[in-house]
Design brief:
It holds the Pfam family Asn_synthase. GO terms for molecular function: ATP binding. Keywords: ATP-binding, Nucleotide-binding. InterPro entries: Asn_synthase, Asn_Synthetase, Rossmann-like_a/b/a_fold. It comes from Saliphagus infecundisoli. The chain is of the alpha/beta class. The chain folds into 2 domains: 83 residues, no CATH class; 236 residues, 3-Layer(aba) Sandwich (Rossmann fold), CATH 3.40.50.620. The chain is built from 16 helices and 13 strands. The strands form 3 sheets. A 5-stranded antiparallel β-sheet has the order 1-2-3-7-8, with no helix packed on it. A 5-stranded parallel β-sheet has the order 11-10-9-12-13, sandwiched between helices. Strands 5-4-6 form a 3-stranded antiparallel β-sheet, with no helix packed on it. A hairpin with a 2-residue loop joins strand 7 and strand 8. Helix 2 packs antiparallel against helix 11, helix 2 crosses helix 12 and helix 6 runs parallel beside helix 10. The protein starts with 7 loop residues before the first strand and ends with a helix. The C terminus is likely disordered.
Length: 380
Amino acid sequence: MTAGGPTELRGGVLPRIPGPDSVREALDRTDPLPGTGGFAGSFDGRLVRDVLGRRPLYTDGEDWAFSPADLDDPTLFPAGTIDDDGGREQVWELPVPDPESDHDPALEAVDRALAESVADVPAEGTAVAFSGGVDSALLAAFLDVPLYVAGFPGSHDIEAARSAAAAMGREGELTVVELTHGAVERALPKLVPAIDRANAMDLGIALPLYLTAERAREEGHDRLALGQGADELFGGYEKVATLDGRVEATTVRGAVREQVLGLPDELPRDVLAVEAAGVRPVAPYLHDRVIGAALRLPPELLVEGGGDGRRKIAFRRVASRYLPGEVADRPKKALQYGSDADRELDRIARRAGYKRRIGNHVEAFVRARLRDDGATEADE
């Protein structure tokens, strides 16, 4: 398979699309972090996708597309790869730089990279997906734009967003998107084909993103700023601190690298969920300059020892320069749990007769519901 035709590139997680010269230079120098927010598409008759797959790209053996919905049997094109006349070649690998031995320059590099990357996002037309955690709060500190949080009534994220916005003096800029079972069932027929996933975990993340982006678009915004990448790059996961059986690595830096290398499979869900609502996702923490600074952090600036200590040390220290301490030090709550989307998807499926004992009951419910909806539309 070859891409064929003229160059057709799309950018990854920032508004600016890398030009052909940038991609050509990245190929010529085999530079995995050439100073972009990612890219993918057809370039000089070849398919390309950047080292972290920040722009989704799909193939089916005969054709290619940016959306899985445009192909009959889509598979993700591997990150860091080119395809030239059917021969795939891995041309970019995530670098493994030596860690900085001096903490101050390392922290300054992270601070500068974060600030410069968020500065690439125009304020006009942008909103922030704001859960009240440190990742989205730092975006809000840099961007004077409206804030949106989605969750079921009484969920952790809604309360955390309200308290963080109050601490930052931004209460009047926060819009709460209260999720309902009706909104979830309405969203599924559009969301599932768009992301090509129907399992409980992926939907628990994608649904709040989609419904947040939908409201933001209705209120005049065409970009949604996301904090994606911060946990992977800066050691935000418990398993990185504990080095337990959930990771293969035996060192903190190795475990962080393991999480970063998982991004090419995870990011398409988030990017496509937001785009399905007609909004462009932007994720400044996934700019090459931030990735480069994060990869040079020593383990003691990633997590404290023992597993129960603080995580994302460098990120939080930088964030504390811009945020109230209570917000900069707030612990992580994954989106599917903070919004209660996982709990409510389980509840919807069980009410429809799909019990947990059947295994993957949420996905079974969703697939059946979409088949039934398709049959009804055909009958009509």
